[in-house]
Amino acid sequence: MNSQKLNLSTPNMLGGIGGIFIILGFLFNLLSIVGLILILVAFYQYSQILNKPSIFQYGLRWGIFLFVAEILLIFFVIAAIIGDGNTFLAVVGALLAYGLAIFAVINLKNVLIELSITLNQNLFDMSGKFIFWGTILLIILIGSVAVFIGYILLTIAFFTAPKEIELANNNVLNLDSTVNKS
Fold first, then answer.
1. What proportions of the chain, in percent to the nearest 5, are helix, strand and coil?
2. Fewer beta carbons within 10 angstroms: which end of the chain, N or C?
3. How far is it, in rounded angstroms, from Cα 52 to Cα 48?
4. Quick check: pTM over 0.85?
């Protein structure tokens, strides 16, 4: 049986640092963009290492939908402020952004389910559930707490994910949370 060990340290570290930036982005929005990019790079690396292109495809959709939702929200709020003060534009923009954010987190949840199964790390799935339900509940404002907790769990999931994975004929054989120093 032909098997090979694949190192996951780099995507784990990039994803974890990206998660930290997203958490800090709740205070400073520019950091969340950097965090989003780092997590997308981690998803790309996972998809390449694990030979699962769907990880990056869903991740990219998440990033695009989330970015467009933020731009829409900013545009419509600024348009409402600069315009005649009509809040209708702001409400329309917020609802469009909310819908796109839901599509975004559905894609993120798909990535995290796949990572959870492949890496045998349940925190990925749990973080996806927190982020998903938190986004749904954003409409009543309590969801932001759940989203925040979800990104904390996602950061922990990246940092505690296995450092190596052994594959035999593209099937996961063994997960090792420590790096062999042989």
1. 75, 10, 15
2. C
3. 7
4. no
Choose between 42 and 84: higher pLDDT. Answer: 42
**β-strand partners of 167:** 4, 172
d(CA 97, CA 114): 26
Q: Quick one: 13 exposed, middle or buried, by C-beta within 10 A (0-12, 13-18, 19+)?
A: middle
How far apart are alpha carbons 61 and 90 in whole angstroms?
25
Q: Give CA–CA dist 108/67, Å, rounded.
A: 13
User: Could you give the CA distance from residue 142 to residue 136 in angstroms, rounded to a whole number?
Assistant: 10
Q: Find out whether 110 and 85 touch, Cβ atoms under 8 Å.
A: no
CA distance 92 to 127: 29
CA 106 to chain centre: 10
Contact assessment for residue 135 and residue 105, using Cβ atoms and an 8 Å cutoff: yes
pLDDT category of residue 85 using cuts at 50, 70 and 90? low
Query: What are 5-35's pLDDT values in tens digits?
Result: 788 888 888 888 888 888 887 766 778 888 8
- Secondary structure class of 7 (helix, strand, coil): strand
